[in-house]
Amino acid sequence: MAECGARGSGSSGDSLDKSITLPPDEIFRNLENAKRFAIDIGGSLTKLAYYSTVQHKVARVRSFDLSGQDVAEQDRESPYEISVQEEVTARLHFVKFENTYIEACLDFIKDHLVNTETKVIPATGGGNIPHEAFAYQKDADPEFRFQTNHPHIFPYLLVNIGSGVSIVKVETEDRFEWVGGSSIGGGTFWGLGALLTKTKKFDELLHLASRGQHANVDMLVQDIYGGAHQTLGLSGNLIASSFGKSATADQEFSQEDMAKSLLHMISNDIGQLACLYAKLHGLDRVYFGGFFIRGHPVTMRTITYSINFFSKGEVQALFLRHEGYLGAIGAFLKGAEQDNPNQYSWGENYAGSSGLRSASPELCPTQRARSGTFDLLEMDRLERPLVNLPLLLDPSSYVPDTVDLTDDAQAREHWLTCFEEALDGVVKRAVASQPGSVDAAERAEKFRHKYWDKLQTLRHQPFAYGTLTVRSLLDTREHCLNEFNFPDPYSKVKQKENGAALRCFQRVVGALDALGWEERQLALVTGLLAGNVFDWGAKAVADVLESDPHFGFTEAKRKLEERPWLVDCYDRWLRRLKGPPHKCALIFADNSGVDVILGVFPFVRALLSRGTEVILACNSGPALNDVTYSESLIVAEHIAAMDPVVHAALREERLLLMQTGASSPCLDLSRLDEGLASLVRERGTDLVVIEGMGRAVHTNYEAALRCECLKLAVIKNAWLAERLGGRLFSVIFKYEVPAEVPAE
């Protein structure tokens, strides 16, 4: 039983400040609002988990009351007003550190738990995060190979390496059993290491081991058999006896060599033990957790080698990015059962998480210095569960992202540089979005520094938050903006552009209606593409929009490349339109303003006129100038007032507006709002339209669906266009029909 009681005397805050490299309020963030608290005190490391309520700013939109005004007055009005309000959400915090700091930390926690109703959960002994599990392979590029979230992971073996080793066979989410263990674990490495090297800190031991040569201490097969080892079918570099040379050699051994030999000995023993249990129970996957691993390459390499060697490649070793929190999460959930934690989905807050770190001293010295003291993870609660799109052909093999920047060094360098160069513009936009705030500039600078630091960490350690992608770079930026209370930096831009586009809507649809049928179909698609040009997240477009305020829908059409497009399936799409109408179309919208109003809604209107029901899905929360669900409701209301087709479809529920559950310029079809997924299934959706670079190129370009799919975008990045074989403003128009649709 552990309590947050006072230990020692004096100023706890001062003692904590002197003993660590991070300010206490950056470690125990939002502690004053903690509602539930759990501690997992191991033999060498302490892990904390607490639940807090987080108050942050959100941008709200509300339609103006235009009753009693004449048409001219209405035309001059913006379509809605914007207000910034406070919202309270839930967050899970996890912190882990060496027991050296436990007294100072518990004193600090006690002094700052101002909520007297906070529940302290008894400590234990011994959500769904994308890219959590990974395989490690020495000399591969990248060494970290992250696994996609697989819906069929059971059964497997879980090996938790703390002070000792605990081995659990997991068959389902609620059926598991302890099958074995060992007293030789992380505590053994730390204890013997302290005796051998006089080094008391765990990370210092790992650092010593990373510089050591174990062959100076260990007896190898070639030391015993010489060249004859080849006739035995054994590698000469295999360890025949750990520390075998120390008994006979008349010399002093370096601390580095002894630490390396010890690490190999412990890791090999654990790997062999895990392999034997896996074979005993007929399992081919072993997940390793516990803070002994710490993402340390030598440890993971040795365990992986041991598993491969003793299983002859039949068993796979997998590691966890947040391996040290298993006990703390278990303690937390045990005390939170009455809150039904499984009814929510959770997402990692990149702004508050420290990420997976390498032990290599050459990579990122500042981050490495901090990693030896504290490690942080934050998870934000999403208000609705997120599920797979029912139309995914094979959810188990679905990968949202098109390019893995962890693997593609050239692409990684380009996109990291892109995000660095765009930072000044984002800061400027953030300040401009809050003209009445006296501290906006100060907060924007804090955002700049935090996001810049994240980018530098990712330059040195691209695996820090799992597989590095354009999507994760965009999401990290949004998280950092929210951290400093910039909930929607483009809110005023969107408000202005939505108002301007609405005033052009009737003229645009009137011109479309005047065209012949076949000419109209091409004009509708061209309008979709031209609207997609209006993306403030693309520097080439932002520069144009900043310098030319008169750049509009007509000018955007002129920017598009002539047919044939870079990817051009339009003729196939046209032939399909000459056939029977689709039953229901799901459209994922992209940008506000011209894009959604003059591009998407005319396309929606044409589908409705064919007899196709339409589900228009927009972001739940803001990201860049993407249209949000709440904005789309107001836009649709204004369009319905002008257009009888849209008006009737809304009234008869043939046009339904839904939220995606996301706040990202990209799209993960495995994490969609449960209500949207249910509606897609209920309406028998047989066409999916994915629009925009973020949703249809950076993500989902290779996604396979069970139904027809349109993926369309304008390439607004010159480097990417050239890589794809085109030029700036090249067009992607993919129309895909599944060769064979399996039964559900």
Explain what you see.
It catalyses: (R)-4'-phosphopantetheine + H2O = (R)-pantetheine + phosphate; (R)-4'-phosphopantetheine sulfonate + H2O = (R)-pantetheine sulfonate + phosphate; (R)-4'-phospho-S-sulfopantetheine + H2O = (R)-S-sulfopantetheine + phosphate. Residues 421-726 form the Damage-control phosphatase ARMT1-like metal-binding domain. The chain is of the alpha/beta class and 744 residues long. The chain has four domains: 31-62 and 77-129 and 333-382, no CATH class; 133-217 and 253-320, Nucleotidyltransferase, domain 5, CATH 3.30.420.40; 402-484, AF1104-like (Up-down Bundle); 492-736, 3-Layer(aba) Sandwich (Rossmann fold). It is built from 26 helices and 24 strands. The strands form five sheets. It has a seven-stranded mixed β-sheet, with helices on one face. The chain has a seven-stranded mixed β-sheet with strand order 17-24-23-22-18-19-20, sandwiched between helices. Strands 4-1-2-3-15-14 form a six-stranded mixed β-sheet, with helices on both faces. The model is unreliable at 1-20, 70-76, 121-127 and 358-372 (pLDDT under 50).
Please describe the topology of this protein.
Layout: H1 12-19, H2 24-27, E1 34-41, E2 45-63, H3 71-76, E3 80-98, H4 102-112, E4 119-120, E5 133-136, E6 144-146, E7 156-161, E8 165-172, E9 175-182, H5 186-197, H6 202-211, E10 219-220, H7 221-225, E11 239-241, H8 255-280, E12 285-289, H9 297-311, E13 316-320, H10 326-335, E14 345-348, H11 365-371, E15 374-382, E16 386-387, H12 409-421, H13 423-432, H14 440-460, H15 470-483, H16 491-513, H17 517-532, H18 539-547, H19 553-559, E17 567-568, H20 570-577, E18 584-588, H21 594-609, E19 613-618, H22 629-642, H23 644-651, E20 655-659, E21 672-673, H24 674-682, E22 687-691, H25 693-698, E23 708-715, H26 718-723, E24 730-736
Parallel strand pairs: 1-4, 7-12, 12-13, 17-24, 18-19, 18-22, 19-20, 22-23
Antiparallel strand pairs: 1-2, 2-3, 3-15, 5-6, 5-13, 7-8, 8-9, 10-11, 14-15, 16-21, 23-24
